[in-house]
């Protein structure tokens, strides 16, 4: 699990350096996501947020998520339609996600050579990449061990 307080501090610094507002609702959304093991769907996030903020509505959550994604603080897990906190938001390059199909654990990789090769090949084909998502679905070591011992 991510060290939430360190992640929030990093997000505050990053937003301040970029001159963007890290509002309390954006901070709380990031905190909820970071405190959740694996991915969190938008409506699950809304349910949690609504217990604290009666005025929380879907547009509020989606705007906060869009901001956090744009700032590299949160990633959208396309295959699960869920969101996960980025453990290293200072990393400006692409990423890959390992997703355990049993426990939902998500690990982030930064294999920059893969992204560079994909980008190069896309350019060779005259294609402009606007967004890239690489997700690998499988079983983490803990879940494989649990299956093996049962």
From TrEMBL:
Coiled coil: none annotated. Keywords: Cytoplasm, DNA-binding, Iron, Metal-binding, Repressor, Transcription, Transcription regulation, Zinc. It comes from the Bacteria. InterPro entries: FUR (IPR002481), Fur_C (IPR043135), WH-like_DNA-bd_sf (IPR036388), WH_DNA-bd_sf (IPR036390). It holds the Pfam family FUR. Belongs to the Fur family. This is Ferric uptake regulation protein. The lineage of its organism: Bacteria, Pseudomonadati, Pseudomonadota, Gammaproteobacteria, Oceanospirillales. The gene is zur.
């Amino acid at each position: 699990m991510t060290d939430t307080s360190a992640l929030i501090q990093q997000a505050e610094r990053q937003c301040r350096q970029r001159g963007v507002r890290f509002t309390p609702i954006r901070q709380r959304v990031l905190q909820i996501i970071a405190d959740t093991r694996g991915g969190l769907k938008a409506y699950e996030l809304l349910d949690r947020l609504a217990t604290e903020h009666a005025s929380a509505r879907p547009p509020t959550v989606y705007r906060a998520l869009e901001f956090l994604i744009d700032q590299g603080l949160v990633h959208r897990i396309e295959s699960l339609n869920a969101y996960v906190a980025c453990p290293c938001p200072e990393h400006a390059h692409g990423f890959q996600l390992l997703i355990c199909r049993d426990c939902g654990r998500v690990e982030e990789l930064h294999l920059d050579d893969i992204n560079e090769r994909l980008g190069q090949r896309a350019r060779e084909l005259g294609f402009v990449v606007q967004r890239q998502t690489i997700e690998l679905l499988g079983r983490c070591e803990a879940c494989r061990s649990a299956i093996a011992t049962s």
